[in-house]
Write a structure and sequence with these properties.
By secondary structure, the chain is mainly β. The protein is built from three helices and 21 strands. The two termini are 44 Å apart.
Amino acid sequence: MAQKIIDLDTQHPTWVGDLFPVAFGKCNDNFTELYAATGGLTAMGGKNMLINCGIPINQRGFAGGALAAGVYGYDRWKAGIGGCNVTINATTGVFTHTSGPLQQIVEAPPLAWGQPLTISVENPSGSIAVSVGGTTATITSGSGRRGVTITPSGSGNMTVQLTATGVTYSRPQLERGSAATPFDVRWYALELLLCQRYYEKSYNDTVKPGTAGAGDGRCTVLVTGLPATAHIWGQSVDFRVSKRANPSITTYSHATGAVGMARDSSVNGDVPTAISAPGQAGFLWYASAAGSPASVNLECHWVADAEL
């Protein structure tokens, strides 16, 4: 039965059915009907199962070009077997795919295995071999949105791979159904959050991890008035986004960019860090201050990596 709500500005009643006109043949919690009626999972992040397909988010500061097998460049994109060579234009989002397989692993997508899926790109200048969950096809060259529909079989995480030689294209999209629809544009803030489930850093968005002298956003432990004895100091860090699994943590001296270090600014030198209890929500880092100072100023940046 439809429910009535009241508009607090006009005091006029509105039936929920007017706002959400979904007609079910029977009341049996049929998710397939709900999925179709709401246009898929758009309200929960968009129809595109791939992440970072427009203007690229590039937390690692990848310059574009060659990537060794299994190595990530732009967020969520890595090289497949044998490596690849890909550059994404930071202004237009156009992929220049020079060679090799480019992969993205979709984390256990719901309502995808055993169902028709369409993978597409815009304006491919040549043929692109695609593999979705191990099922292969080819996107042919042409103008506009070009795609192909396949039905992968399997379960769990789904590996999506695009292989091309000397081809340009833009806006890859993997969606449920048998038609290639217009590209699903997400707000930058949402796209960044989706990326940060797998990779997050303390540096500003455009600063490459390990950049010397990158002070903004660094973690700091500052204590004064201490007795002249040796000290070990730690700091807990909370992630902005819960990770998909316990991540690996790497620290960097903000002053020199040295890996596995914090800056002991009391003596202007780097000291090694240790990591404790990394979890999906955060971690603890700690370090020993040099000597037996009466004040401590330990500072570092960090990267959390939970990529698939």
